[in-house]
Amino acid sequence: MKNTATDPVVLTTDIKEYPLMRRGKVRDIYDLGDTLLFIASDRISAFDVVMPNGIPGKGRVLTQTSLFWFDFLTDVVANHLVTANVDEYPTALRKYRDQLDGRSMIVVKADRIDAECIVRGYISGSMWKELQSARAQGSNTVHGFEFPQNLLESGKLPKPLFTPSSKNDDGHDENISFDQMIALVGRETAELCREKSLAVYQKAADYALTKGIIIADSKFEFGYKNGSFILIDEVLSPDSSRFWPVDTYAPGTGQPSFDKQPIRDYLEATGWNKKPPAPILPDDVINASAARYREAQRLLTGK
After folding, report:
1. pLDDT digit string, tens, across residues 133-162
2. What is the CATH number of the domain that holds 158?
3. 125 & 91 share domain
């Protein structure tokens, strides 16, 4: 595996032999016919806007971390991975090895379930903001969940909660209740999403604690392939999860995290209006985020 710290930044890919199915905030997806090629670029987004410069090696960190978890979680739920070995890719793709090695995977095509499956072991982010709003109205209930009156920001919840959100590829996802999820995808699928999300989170969170990381929350995506329920997309990466260091954890405020927090902090300080175009990020901010991504991968996977 290459040293992600010295890799050139890959902001976009250009695979000419296969059609580009989608270019997301981070991932380029190509249609290979029966399968899909996922390539994790080094693009970085903040406040739903893609930054003009990326984080070196970020795509490799996301891919390698997901591959670790796919293997770790096979006894909990099947997944969409076919192979991440470029030598096993179609011959036409192998000349793109520099773009693909370590940051790509071939996956099965699945019928995606159009809901984000979020599990929260600690309260932070949008759910904390919603709880604050509810408390201002004299309530401790959000989306049908009754929270402890003395719960602080970043506090550990009595038990992990499944808090789904709508799936919006182009804008902001919105937190929804479980009943709303049932209306979107049907009761059987919603209950399966809840069961598997909680099981995946619990196994991963228990393991991560032994490596010095709190998984505060994480989002998962699922789909169906030939009638089988499978885990798709990326899983438990610094982009899809809040990873907090155990040794500095202190409820009552926001926590330092192994992700793009230095970028968010910088952008907040600039007074940027959070609309395109985004400002160019300085090297020290890029390097600080890159180091956090690499450290998360090292602690969790040993690589």
Report:
1. 999 999 999 988 999 999 999 999 999 999
2. 3.30.470.20
3. no
